[in-house]
Specification:
Elements lengths: L5 H9 L4 E9 L10 E4 L5 E2 L5 H17 L3 E6 L4 E2 L14 E9 L4 E5 L5 H10 L3 E6 L15 E4 L2 H6 L7 E5 L4 H11 L6 E4 L3 H13 L4 H4 L15 H17 L28
Parallel strand pairs: 7-8, 7-10, 8-9, 10-11
Antiparallel strand pairs: 1-2, 1-6, 2-3, 4-5, 4-6
Length: 289
């Protein structure tokens, strides 16, 4: 087995490169593999190192992608041809079987990034909640008097710029969570047009049913694929019944946790990831000021 060394693993971690670290924890009769050997698998399926034959390597890559998506470590037992086998903990024979290999999968990911587009009254508690939950928070607004450190002490970064220009320069990854809480649908529209269909894990937009429909209709007429809009959580947040800014922020952050952890709570958008048509709820959080 040709594996990755400690120095390379540390360099990937220092660069905040997302990857799944795969370690051999047990092996049967295969003398090529050795316990403790490691490979690194990246989100696009590229990898460094090798664990065995092509079939096993392909299965390891597929499992690594699942582990990265779930953000939870796991241990998987394979046949040397790549077949997924029952875990030894469920078997009477606790000794490693011939022609098998057991691998530990550990997702190594940068902190999830919460991007709040709009620095109004809901953004303030939302930033604080996001930071408490260990999200790296970025706040964007075109008004310098709103987007200031005094209002967002927990933010990792504050960007004062035109919304569209700021979004165009933003790196969006599968670990990005976008919240659109601007003061007007024209800003939401310009932002959503740029991020719809991006790799962001979550896109949520504040507003009533009327506001959401206006934005969606205008974007469809502008040529945005309607199927991309079904992936937007709008109206935003879980259905907690809150109306105060802090309550709305709690509902938004709770929905983000739901999406990240694949929970089953009810969203105001009545949308679960993977459905083709979620519709728009009759009401939602009020527009930002």
């Amino acid at each position: 087995m040709t594996g990755v060394g400690v120095a390379r693993i540390l360099s990937l971690l220092d660069a905040r490169t997302p990857f799944c670290l795969v370690t051999v924890v047990a092996r049967g009769s295969d003398r090529i593999l050795h316990v403790g050997g490691k490979i690194a698998v990246f989100p696009d399926g590229a990898y460094e190192g090798r664990v065995g034959a092509d079939g096993l390597t392909a299965s390891v890559i597929a499992a690594s992608k699942r582990i990265l998506g779930a953000e939870e470590p796991g241990e998987v037992r394979f046949g040397i041809d790549g077949e997924v086998l029952a875990n030894r903990r469920r078997m009477r024979d606790r000794e490693p079987s011939p022609d098998t290999v057991e691998l530990l999968f550990e997702p190594c990911l940068p902190p999830p990034r919460l991007v709040i587009v709009g620095a109004g009254h809901i953004a303030v508690p939302l930033c604080a909640l996001g930071a408490v939950l260990d999200y790296e928070v970025t706040v964007i607004d075109d008004r310098a008097r709103f987007a200031v450190r005094e209002r967002f002490p927990a933010a990792h970064s504050i960007v004062v710029d035109d919304f569209a220009r700021a979004i165009d320069t933003l790196e969006i990854t599968p670990w990005t969570y976008l919240v659109l809480v601007t003061r007007g649908h024209e800003h939401d529209e310009a932002t959503l047009q740029r991020v719809a269909g991006s790799s962001a894990r979550y896109i949520g937009m504040i507003g009533s049913k009327r506001r959401v429909l206006v934005v969606f209709d205008r974007l469809k007429k502008a040529g945005v694929d309607p199927s991309l809009l079904t992936q937007v959580y709008a109206p935003i947040g879980l259905d907690l019944g809150g109306r105060a800014p802090t309550e709305i922020a709690l509902a938004i952050m709770a929905e983000i946790v739901k999406v990240r952890r694949r929970g089953g709570a009810t969203s105001l958008a009545r949308f679960t990831q993977g459905e083709a048509d979620h519709g728009v709820a009759d009401a939602g959080p009020a527009e930002e000021a």
